[in-house]
Each structure stands twice: as structure tokens, then as C-alpha cells.
Amino acid sequence: MSVRVHRVGRAALLLEVADDGEVASLLTELMDRQRAGTLGGVTEVVPAARTVLLDGVARPEQLERQFAGWEPVPVALGSGPLVELPTVYDGADLAEVAERWQVSGEEAVRIHSGCEYRVAFCGFAPGFAYLTGLPERFAVPRRDTPRTRVPVGSVALAGPYTGVYPAASPGGWQLLGHTDLPLWDPDRDPAALLSPGTRVRFTPAAGAG
Amino acid sequence: MSRRAVEVVRSGPLTTVQDAGRRGVAALGVPGAGALDQPARALANRLVGNAPQAAVLETTLGGVALRALAPLVAAVTGAPAPVRVDGRPAPWGAPLRLAAGAVLELGAATDGVRGYVALDGGIDVPPVLGSRSADLLSGLGPAPLTVGLRLPLGRPVGPPCWIEPLPQPAPPRELVLRLDLGPRDDWFAAGTPALLAAARYQVSPASNRIGLRLTGPPLTRLPGRGELPSEGMVLGAVQVPPDGLPVVFLADHPTTGGYPVVGVVPLADLAAAAQARPGTPVRFTPAAAQRRRPPG
Predict the structure, then answer these.
(1) pLDDT per residue over B56-112, tens digit each?
(2) In the predicted model, is pLDDT for residue A87 greater than 90?
(3) Which domains does chain A have, with CATH numbers?
(4) Residue B192 maps to which CATH number?
(5) Which of B4, B58, B75, B85 is most exposed, with the fewest beta carbons within 10 Å of its own?
(6) Cβ-contact B156, B192 below 8 angstroms
(7) ipTM given for this complex
(8) Of B128, B183, B237, which has the smallest distance from its Cβ to A6's Cβ?
(9) DSSP state at residue A166
């Protein structure tokens, strides 16, 4: 579908498309225009599930006209940088997820680690990435009761997304395992290991001890 | 020579370091943070001769007390409150010279919520992602002040603005917030703008740096729209969770959210929102978002 442009207050626009593939396409277009200098003043470009928010827009009317009727062009999703996350599949919900998928625990690990993922967007906490790439039939609901504390590095599922907790926090996602790679370090540049567009693979690793 | 610094004698209920906030990192899930009452922060910086971007202290209702560890200049703005230097009354809204060892005390706010204390040279804690602001949602930046903490100051860059004390802001009897409708006003029952215009809300005590929470008539969502996929949120967004009670997003708001935003309060109205005490009556003046369509 062509992009729907919503005004958000006086200095922001919300560009809405059909799905995450079109968000990727829109994001690529936005980055191209930003590099080419035709986007104008924009402070924040925030992708999400079906939208991209442009905030701190110097001339919203102009940008609104620029994008009205724009059609997403399919982009190759396999072009971003690739990050491999060594993952110990020892999560508290692995057995339950395997049961939902009607496979064994080993098969669940093979399914999850056999896909290539892509960071669709970040949110919830600094450096928390929403990864797409798991086939739709493996989507799982959030836990009915969120945990008060999910350990740092937890690899988890909710809906169509895989996420990795960049810090310990409360959370309702289904825990598959954990990685020891630091996801978030504000003193590092870039602070987030997984930023929108990054490709990700989970490689099964042996647990300590 | 010892470094210019202040030591926290009394932290108050919640005192944080704040500047203009973090920009350009929302896509990583990092909130903007920054002072809630930016005009008051800018004024405090001007009074002590700081650059506009310098970091200051933001107090919450109960004030703060600081000992100068070197001669310095301070100024207090924001919520009106009694100011004392070594126990003697001192002016609010004017530069104050503090000798080494002097204690600057900002008492409980007599009105409003957030006070601002600027020190010449600015608070010089290490910046995180380009800002010295404390972000209480994600825990980035310096932790809230605790007794005994020493805060380093930068080098003064300009002369203080030696003026007569400024008049204190008058207490607002009612908080009136303009509201530009959208982007998800179509998720609400017909007549929602009229309801918003007529409704009388109150500031809830559950308000914080993340959002101004309101009590009053709940807004009704249209049935059958399902759940909104998470989308980017702006400062001033009025998000409506399932209980129907609007929340006005302030500086530490999450970067994305899954509840529909009925409208956005313009930036210029947010300083007053940050100074409205629990119980303050609140009214919205909704207007359709200004848009110019191309001719034809």
C-alpha cells in the first residue's frame, strides 16, 4: 500500500505502511534521502512495527508532501551488517515453547538457531531490539504473568519477535536461553550492538560448567 | 588547587542532574530525558553566565542543600521556594555569590513542583550519549543525588547576569493544555474531541518525569480495533491506556508505545504541566492538527 502520513503534533510525522518489510523499505528510503540531503531537518527517525516516526522535523508540511502517495519498493533485507550471538539455549520457557511448536527441545533450538533475523526496531529499553525472521507459525504469546526480573542477555520470544534483554528488567517474553555478548554499553560506539537493519544469527553454545 | 565542586548536604525527595536531553538516539530505545521545565533551566543558566546547554539540578517539591567547595555563583529558578545561604534568606531568581564552605539551601516549594539550581560552569559529570541528564525510565546518566555526593563543576564561561531578583511565577489555578489531535484520534468514540474540551481532569499524584497522569472522565476506544502495534512516541503525546485516563508524556517517556495517542500537547505548554501539583485542575483545548493540503 502507499504510505499514510499522520501529523503528530507540530514537529513530527508518523509514516504508516502495511508491514515490517515495508517499514524496512521506508527506512532505507529515509536514510537515502537523509544522505542525499533532501530530507531536511529531522532529529529522530524511529522505526516500529508498521510505522516510522520522524520527530524534530523542521518543515513538516514539506515532508508530508514529499511522502504523500509514496509506494514502498521491496528492499533486499540481507544487506545489513551481520552479528552472531553465541547462545546457550537453557531458558526457563524452552520446554513450554517446544511444546507449543509440537517439537522436541533439541528441534526447537534447531528451528530458532536455523533462521536469520533482522532488527526491525528498538524500544522498551535502550538497546532492546525486536528481531523478525522467525516464520509466523512459530509466534508465541507473552507470558500471562510477566516475570519481575529477567536476567541480562536473555534470548526470548513474544509474538512474531525474538528479543535479547540488554539489561536485567521485568519482562513477559518467553525465555529460550541467554547470550554473554554485551548488548548495550553507553560508553561504546555504537552503544547498541543491535540497531535497526542489523542481521542476527543465534549460534548454539555450550553452557558454562 | 582543588577542583570546583559542590557537596550534597540534603538531597531532597528527588533531585537529578538535567540538561537539554539526549537527541538522535530514540531509534535505539533511548528516551530524551532533560529538564522538564526547560525555560526555567535556561533562565537559571543565563543568571549564572552559563552556556545554554549547561547541566543544572532539578529538584522535586522538597528542595536541596549544597555546600560550595570553592567560591562560586548559583541561581535558583522554577518552582517558587525559600532560598537561604548559611541560614540567611537570599533571593530567588538572581545570581548568588557563595564563598567556599557556604551552604545554599533551597526549601520546600511554596508552589509548583520542580526547582532548578544552576551553578557557574555547569554540573560537569561525564556525559552519556551526548547528555548529562538523568533518565529515570532506563537508568542512563547520573543517579539521583544522595547525601555526601560531590558534583564537579565546569569552568565558568561568562559573567553572571547581575540583575534584581526576578518576580516569582504566579500559581496557576488551572492547567490549560492545547491539544493537537492525532495521530490516533480515530481510535476513539465519536465526540471524543468534544468530551476532551468539556472534561475537567486533575493531576494525579502518580505523575512523574515519565508522564503527567490525570484522573477524570475516561475516554472510550472504538470497539473492534484490536491492539495497536507499538509505534514511536513524541514528547507531549497524550497516550490513552485501557483505563481510558490520558497520560501526557514528559521527558523520560518510552520511545515506543502500544496505546493509541489521541493528541499531542505542544512543547510550549509542557513546562506548566511539569509544574502542576497533584490535584491541579486540568483542561484540554483540542484542535485538529494544522495541515495544508495541496490544491486540487
Answers:
(1) 999 999 999 999 999 999 999 999 999 999 999 999 999 999 999 999 999 999 999
(2) yes
(3) 4-75 (3.30.1360.40), 78-204 (2.40.100.10)
(4) 2.40.100.10
(5) B85
(6) no
(7) 0.94
(8) B183
(9) S
